[in-house]
Structure formats: C-alpha cells, structure tokens
C-alpha cells in the first residue's frame, strides 16, 4: 500500500480543500457543485421534437449569467455480479430447455464482454461559484478543468466568524444557481440532481484511478428492463 507521502503529489494536483454536503470547497473560497444529469436519445426523436429540444437548450443557456461545464464520464461496467445472478437462476431452474437457454445466454455474455468492454456514460453539469468573479470566461481544458478557479479574495485574511458567514452566504448563492440549472434542464426533458458527498468523492476516485473505475452492481432486473 502506498504511503501517505506517496499520495501527496496527487493531492497537490487537486484544488479541493474539502467536500461539504456534496459541495466542493476549493482553496481560496470558491465552490463547485456537480449535478448528475440523465440522458436522452436525440436521434430517435422526430424532427419537431429535436427542434424543440434545441430551442429549449438555447433558452436555457441564454438564461444563465454564469459559466458552467458539461462533463461526460465513461466507466467500464463490471458484470461479475450479473453473471453470478444468472448462474443462480440457472441452478434453480427446473425446466431443461430454459436451463439450457440460460447457460447459453450466460456464456454468450461472458464471451462478448471478454472481447468488448461494456461502457456506461454518466453526464454531469458543474455549477461554479467564485468569491470574486472577473469578467470573461475562464480558460478550460481536460476532464478536471472545472476545478480551475478565477482570482479570488484572500480568505485567510478574514476572521473565523467572517469566514463562516461568508461560506454560508456563498453556499446560498451556489444553491440558487444549482436550482436554476436543474429547472432549466427539466424544461429540456432532462432529470438532474446534485451529487451527494460520497458520490462526489467516488467520482474523483474514479477519475484518478481509471484502471479501477468499474461500475459494479448491474442487476438482473435492470438488464431485463433494458
């Protein structure tokens, strides 16, 4: 296991000071809230529906007076649990034909995944709040560019009471922005919700450990629904 000293260089690349109720508290007092967003199959929509979605999206962007980042994260799906569930159903199946079909289906899935990794895409919108915003759009690039913040005031110069009041006030402002984004996305037909603290931490773990970033827990019922 790597020592704490070995982990320090990685921590230095992350500008997050703490995570509080799902809110990323950056050094200097700036904040970020990550909102998970559902997807929709645009290509399956009719032309009128596509035009309505584009128009709603345009109105959504024009309604914002702050920048945001759209972030897509791909994860390999671990289907070991799914295959184990199939094996259990196969073992309890009394009908010979169904038992054979379950065995063949399980083997097909196992062979298919061995040659083709199953990926799941997750969609996020990152809502920012900077203590002091400078006019113009900040530069961005890469998956973690939403952590880059604009020039901010020196929070260390404030007393503890002032820091507490400032943080509470800033969180209130960020919360209003998040509500505005969620309402705007709903008008497009996209469900969304802010990430809880554990989900936000897990997201960053997966980003910095891509070799271990497998989504587990694909259930039999979920696969049947699809």
Can you describe what's shown?
Strands 1, 2, 3, 4, 5, 6 and 7 form a 7-stranded mixed beta sheet that branches. The N terminus and C terminus are likely disordered. β1 and β2 form a beta hairpin. The chain has one domain. It is built from 7 helices and 7 strands. By secondary structure, it is of the alpha+beta class.
Write the layout of secondary structure elements.
Layout (H helix, E strand, L loop, with lengths): L3 H10 L2 E5 L2 E4 L4 E7 L9 H16 L6 E9 L2 H13 L3 H20 L3 E11 L30 H29 L3 E3 L2 H12 L5 E2 L4 H6 L1
Parallel strand pairs: 4-7
Antiparallel strand pairs: 1-2, 2-3, 3-5, 3-6, 4-5
Helix pairs in contact: 2-5, 3-4
How many separate helices?
A: 7
* Rg, nearest Å: 22 Å
The fraction of residues assigned to DSSP E strands is: 15-25%
Shape: extended
What level of helicity do the residues show? 40-55%
Q: Indicate the structural class.
A: alpha+beta
End-to-end Cα distance: 39 Å
Order of helices and strands: HEEEHEHHEHEHEH
Key phrases:
single chain; 226 residues; alpha+beta; 7-stranded mixed beta sheet; extended
């Amino acid at each position: 296991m790597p020592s704490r000293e070995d982990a320090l260089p990685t921590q230095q690349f992350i500008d997050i000071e703490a995570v509080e109720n799902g809110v990323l508290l950056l050094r200097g007092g700036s904040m970020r809230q990550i909102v998970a967003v559902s997807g929709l199959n645009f290509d399956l929509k009719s032309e009128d529906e596509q035009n309505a979605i584009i128009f709603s999206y345009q109105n959504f962007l024009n309604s914002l007076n702050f920048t945001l980042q759209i972030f897509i994260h791909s994860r390999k799906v671990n289907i070991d649990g799914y295959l184990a569930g199939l094996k259990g159903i196969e073992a309890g199946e009394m009908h010979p034909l169904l038992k054979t079909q379950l065995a063949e289906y399980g083997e097909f899935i196992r062979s298919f995944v061995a040659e083709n990794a199953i990926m799941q895409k997750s969609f996020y919108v990152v809502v920012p709040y900077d203590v002091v915003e400078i006019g113009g759009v900040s530069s961005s690039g890469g998956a973690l560019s939403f952590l880059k913040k604009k020039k901010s005031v020196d929070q260390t110069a404030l007393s503890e009471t002032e820091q507490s009041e400032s943080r509470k006030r800033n969180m209130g402002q960020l919360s209003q922005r998040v509500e505005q984004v969620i309402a705007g996305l709903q008008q497009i037909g996209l469900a969304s919700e802010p990430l809880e603290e554990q989900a936000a931490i897990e997201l960053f773990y997966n980003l910095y450990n891509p070799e271990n970033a497998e989504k587990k827990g694909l259930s039999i019922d979920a696969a049947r629904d699809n």
